[in-house]
UniProtKB/TrEMBL annotation, chain A:
The keyword Transport applies. One of its GO terms (molecular function) is electron transfer activity. The keyword Electron transport applies. This is Electron transfer flavoprotein alpha/beta-subunit N-terminal domain-containing protein. SUPFAM superfamilies: Adenine nucleotide alpha hydrolases-like (SSF52402). InterPro entries: ETF_a/b_N, ETF_b, Rossmann-like_a/b/a_fold. It comes from Bradyrhizobium macuxiense.
Automatic annotation (TrEMBL), chain B:
The keyword Cell wall biogenesis/degradation does not apply. PANTHER family: IRON-SULFUR-BINDING OXIDOREDUCTASE FADF-RELATED, IRON-SULFUR-BINDING OXIDOREDUCTASE FADF-RELATED-RELATED. GO terms for cellular component: plasma membrane. This is 4Fe-4S ferredoxin-type domain-containing protein. The chain crosses the membrane at residues 15-39, 80-104, 124-145, 177-198, 204-224, 231-252. Residues 296-327, 363-391 form the 4Fe-4S ferredoxin-type domain. SUPFAM superfamilies: alpha-helical ferredoxin, Respiratory nitrate reductase 1 gamma chain.
Amino acid sequence: MKIITFVKHVPSSGATPRIAVTKRGIEEEGLAYEANETDLYAIEEALYQRFVHQGTVTAVTIGPRRAQAALHVAYAKGVDHGIHVLTEGSHGTDTALNVAAAAEVVKKQGFDLIFTGIQADDDLQGLFGIALAEHLGIPVISAVTQVNVSADKKTAVVTRELGGGYKEEFEVDLPCLCTVQFGIRPVRYSSIMAIVKARSRKIESMSLEAMKIASRQASRMSIAELSYPENSGQCQMLDGAPAEAVRTLVANLVEKGVI
Amino acid sequence: MEYSIVPAREIFRHFSVLSIGIFYLTALISVGIFAYGVWLRVAKYRGGRAVAQHGLTWARVRETALVVLSHSKLRKRNALAGWAHVLIFFGFLTLLAGTITIWIDHDVLGLFGIHFWKGVFYLWFSATLDLMGLALLVGLAIMAARRWSTQPQFDYSRADRKAGTYSRLGYVRDDTIFLAILFLIGATGFVTEALRILADRPDFEVWSFVGWQLANGLSAVGLSRADANQLHFYCWWLHAILVFTFIAYIPYSKAIHILVDSANLLVRDPVAGKRLPAISEDVAGLGYQRLEDLTWKDRLNLDACTKCGRCHVACPARAGGWQLSPRDVILDLREQAEAKLGGGSLLHETSLAHDGSAGGGLIKPEVLWACTTCMACMEACPVGIEHVPLIVQMRRNLVEQGVMEPNLQKTLEKIGSSGNSFGEAAQNRAKWTQALPFRIKDARKEPVEYLWFVGDYASFDPGLQEITRSVARILHRTGVDFGILYEAEQNSGNDVRRVGEEGLFQMLIENNLAALGQARFKEIITTDPHTYNTLKFEYPEFGGEYRVRHYTELLAELIESGRIPISHPLDAIATYHDPCNLSRYTEVTDAPRAIMQAIGIKLIEMPRNRSNSFCCGAGGGRIWMASPGSEERPSHQRMREALELPDVKYFVVACPKDVVMFREAAAAVQGAGHIQVKEMIELVEMAISETVPALS
Ligand code: SF4
Ligand code: SF4
């Protein structure tokens, strides 16, 4: 079975990003990056499926040079191949461009299953997987929490999450695409040594030019402005013994008209 | 019968040539079986991986001889067992030396007609051997009584398996055989001697005082000289056969500890555990996953265990009801090694039901993750077994496989991305300094005398920052020229390394060494004993050689020299908890006590103090793990230990993690409400409150 996963290299949540003066992006300087969290869940699921059904797992990242680091993580987790589509200009947020490039890659590779994370931690669009499936004309299931591929590898039973803890089960023809929900199975720790070792693994590099995709060609959207989160709530620490603190709390709540 | 006037005796008294021939043949066979067993073991060790260093020097030989002869390690944790072993050890050694003496006289020099085993020498020889033979028997009797007492370390129950899934009857049998055979050898020796004396009654044999009195006793119960003469022959043979059996049995039983343990003490690593082994190139993975990964020294280590149980009772993880017992880790590995590589005991632990959940490794992950790397086991072990490096080697394999609990994984990921276990941005590292009324020098920008390596907990934990500021205030007011590394300091990596994440450790070292390289200073001081250990013992291997001390050492010095005047002695009663990393690792136990004395504290020691301290449970990365044990937590047990002491007001610690652990314990343990957990520096600040007003 051929499985392809996509992994995005995103700014890590540890540091607070600063908005650039143009207000259309964030300052790259001083940022640390990491592999997008749900994409790691997608990789774990792909590796699990490989364990059950044999085959190969390919991880693809689309982004600037630094995004290779996401593939090092993927290699450390155990994928078989890493492909990097180099897009120096875009910061990975141009879904149309990403989809066009991804479609080229997967068509060239051939596949039975595509796993992507449900969303990227930076832009939270949640578009990529769905748009890619549309583009390829294959079924897509989002927020997937379980995948059971049939023995003949022609269909799969896929569970997805609904609101309120409900679940929905689909039977789907392969090839298909799943956007994977957080926690589908535990993401194992990748040791630093494993990541360092993975740095010497071969990464296949593809350029947009070679795929005849002009950057921004497909984009009909642009960012108008980014803004910082506003302080909406307020927080007050109540000191003192528990009984006293509770009295203050009640007094405050009454004062604010809550009770 | 006629006697020569020169005191001596015949070796083969009234023996036929055939009997003598059989004797020598039996001796040969027994020595052959012994040699084969020893060879099997040697082959097993030789099959192990090479060791980078094993510290075998002349100084080591001297030191080991001293340890063995003085029994210092054996007597340390258990005086009775230690002294009983002294009796057995020297009794056995003397009898062995006696036998060799006779052999030289009879079979070596005797061939040339030279005999020295006679006359006055013979008399003193006889008296000495009788005395030491008696010592042996007394020692064995004490050990037997201990062995079958109800002490918990002797029921051999495993911490990691359910009762009924295994049987360690083999171990008990081995103990029994070992004690019994030695006892019988001693006893039959005396009886043989007594029978000979009774039969021949040479006057000078009164020097063999035990045999002489026994002969009197036998005579009193009516044994005739003729019967004694007859019996002597059989008893002599019984004694001889027992001795030969024992010799043959040695390499197949716990008796081999006579040889293996001496060797093990000789090659032990003086900084074992304090400086963990580097990653070996010739291991397939990063740590130990298979028996083949063990070095010859590790294999020797496994065979050295006599199951004395000292580590088992000292271990906080076992006491807290986790599945770990350091003894069982060693014995488990030994059973595996013996099954696969041969060269071992006749009697084994037997598995009654399968519970092999080792997850492809050598030891179950739950067992390995329970270790706090407190080193109590290694400190207690009389034969120099190095549990901690072994456990960490196996943890490295778990880390490589990604087998760990989520909390730990999160923390390691945080450290990997931010350089600290709190996952805070580096810029926030020195935020605690903002509440100080003065600025701490940036050692990267201006030279300082003391570079203070603050550590994660002291820097980021809101509950500890005031304590950290105390240290800064006192140093500042004393006029100590000090600085910090600000955002360039990262987690020192001590516990990361002990978790088994060697790559992350090396990354942290690299970053810290880069920061230290930018700074100019004479000496490093640390608030955190964990940091202290790795800076002192592990950084040099990576090119970072510095003079490092704990702040209590500096403080003790400043107080003694009068630079910190104590204006308000506290006049309070306190007990002091020695942090593992300060007592067992870096061996600082006097400085904190000197400080307490200087500030007017009356110190009452807990039963387990200094190098025998009982771990709070936070070390070795345990502070980042949540999996609970089935018994009361080690920190709570420790708090109870303090509660046993009369009138203790302060429970004093000198480690940031201890403050966290024991404040929780004081709040949770019933009856500990009156005990205040204090970091040493808080007390010092109280004692100098007029000279150094609290400023924040
Ligand atoms: S280091 Fe401490 S916790 Fe670990 S096995 Fe030894 S005694 Fe137990
Ligand atoms: S490892 Fe050492 S302390 Fe522990 S039981 Fe064996 S000999 Fe005793």
